[in-house]
Structure prediction request, 212 residues.
Amino acid sequence: MKQILIFFLLILLLFSCLPQNKNLPPGKDIKLIPYKEIEQTSVFRANISHIPLKTIKTIIAQDSASAGGSDGIYSGFDIDFLLLDVDGNFETKSDQFYPLEEEETRIIPGMIRNEHSSVYTPTEKRPGKLFGLNAGNGINFYIATISCPDAQYEINLDPDKCSGWLSLGDKGTLYAYFGLKNVDTYQTMYLFIGEVGIGFKEELRALIRVIE
Prediction:
């Protein structure tokens, strides 16, 4: 939904069961490549197979506060979904892993641009200060189905007629909990992220940081 460049900070938080590789770099810049369009979503993919992992606990996605795109409750990056995929083929679902809809999957909401002047404001059905949040600023998993590529919206972006994604707000941060073990038993691993909107008018980058 943004017509600008967006940068993401994606961090894999790991347990101490990581390989004791002291030469492992503290971070690796990963470019998410445009993969395909699905309905109203642009899908990006990154190959993270080169990082020696045993456990993927949480993926942290942080908005870059680039101050573009829609404002109000749609401020920040709009995540349709994110998932891990073994073979890198989005069409094969049996080898995909999704964030768990538990309290470990949470958000630190970012700032709302033009909060008091935007036409995009909370409604009775969508009371969160950002789209996909509940009145208490927690994730409403009924609206923000971040484990499923199902974002739907109309041209006027009426909140009550939109569904299927989470807006982070400027500098907002999503902690997507996977709790995935035995990662090293797979020969490959890919990260997919869906951004609401089509046309691949944005460029995504990621920093995969391994913490022992």
User: Anything to note?
Assistant: The chain has one domain: 9-211. The chain has a mean pLDDT of 82. Residues 180 and 197 are 29 Å apart (CA to CA).
